[in-house]
Design brief:
Number of helices: 11
Radius of gyration: 38 Å
Distance between the termini: 82 Å
Number of domains: 1
Oligomer: single chain
Structural class: mainly alpha
Order of helices and strands: HHHHEEHHHHHHH
Strand order of the largest sheet: 1-2
Shape: elongated
């Protein structure tokens, strides 16, 4: 009995694994290059649904960030108005009071939070851009070249100075990781927000809205200042010559010569009017002081409440839109380094660690 295996059969057995891999790679390449098959496989309904769900979540996050940014600007505007209020009156000199300068810490916190929200919105926009751009780009520029290199390396790797088989495998693996890493990060973000952050976000937004509305309604200074300025404007419109044109000295001398008592009467009237205005101002300041006496303690009790809610919102957006995307970026760099067995991004990471350690020391 002849047990000798022919040479062609030996060759087939030796290359059987490479042949099967080559057929699978050619099949995948055909699915990419043939349009209808690509639409069914790589751009199928299931993958498109994942991308659309991720985009919808990012749009919802962007809407929440926009609402928080609007609250930030409204609070900043209200605090700025309160800080610009100056209570002044004249008796024998000008006295000016600024009763709300102590709101500077809240103003600074709100301004810093607005910058956090701008960074958050930029992060959301970048993630949505990558979700829309990466699928086709990854297939065309990473996955397809990786498959061709892998196929070539299976048969010609030992004849070439470059390890095409290693490079092709790692490009394919990198394309798969990049394709699903951002949707996975968005899904994790969505789960963390729904389970741990949604209640805190809703409570903080409602509390800030209520506090800002109550502060606007109870502010005693803005209404008085507006009414006084409106009255002065109406008086100026009724008698523009009196307020806009300076008196003529020659006319005053003629009036004194023609009517000696007129000058004293006018002086008396002006003095009486000045005393009346001073009394009115003192009354307003007195009423304002009593209103401020009630308003100031109430406002000071509201400020820690606002601080607490703004800090809660800051934590929500830092975790939801900044920390996790940065962590995912680091994870991508780490996976690239692991896959390619290189030191990709090692220098940047080293410098970052050195900066942190120097600051701590």
């Amino acid at each position: 009995m002849n047990n000798v295996i022919p040479d062609n059969q030996k060759l087939f057995i030796a290359h059987r694994a490479a042949t099967i891999k080559s057929l699978l790679i050619i099949l995948i390449i055909s699915c990419i290059l043939i349009g209808p098959i690509r639409n069914i496989s790589f751009n199928g309904t299931s993958l498109t649904r994942i991308d659309q769900t991720s985009i919808q979540y990012l749009d919802q996050t962007l809407k929440r960030a926009t609402i928080a940014y609007g609250l930030c600007r409204a609070t900043n505007a209200l605090v700025s108005v309160l800080q610009e209020i100056e209570i002044g009156f004249e008796v024998f000199g000008t006295i000016t009071l600024s009763p709300f300068e102590w709101l500077d810490p809240l103003n600074d916190l709100v301004e810093r939070f607005s910058w956090v929200l701008l960074v958050a919105m930029a992060s959301i926009g970048i993630q949505e851009f990558f979700i829309r751009l990466l699928p086709d780009s990854l297939i065309n520029f990473i996955l397809l070249p990786g498959l061709f290199l892998w196929l070539t390396g299976l048969w010609a790797n030992k004849y070439l100075p470059v390890n095409l088989l290693f490079l092709g495998k790692h490009l394919v693996l990198l394309a798969v990781i990049l394709r699903f890493i951002i949707p996975a990060e968005v899904a994790i973000n969505n789960w963390i927000y729904d389970v741990h952050l949604e209640k805190k976000y809703n409570q903080s937004v409602d509390n800030i809205k209520t506090s800002v509305k109550e502060i606007k309604e109870r502010t005693p200074v803005e209404e008085i200042s507006f009414e006084d300025s409106k009255k002065e404007q109406n008086q100026n419109e009724d008698d523009p010559i009196k307020y806009d044109m300076p008196p003529n000295p020659a006319d005053s001398i003629k009036e004194q010569e023609s009517d000696p008592n007129g000058f004293f009467n006018r002086t008396k009237d002006r003095w009486s009017k000045s005393l009346a205005n001073t009394k009115k101002t003192l009354d307003l300041v007195g009423n304002l002081g009593s209103n401020l006496k009630d308003f100031q303690p109430w406002l000071k009790a509201q400020i820690p409440f606002l601080f607490k809610n703004f800090i809660s919102l800051i934590m929500v957006f830092i975790i939801n839109t900044i920390f996790l995307p940065i962590f995912i970026l680091w994870l991508i760099v780490y996976l690239i380094r692991l896959i390619t067995n290189s030191k990709f991004g090692h220098k940047v990471e080293k410098q970052f660690k050195l900066k942190i350690l120097q600051k701590k020391s």
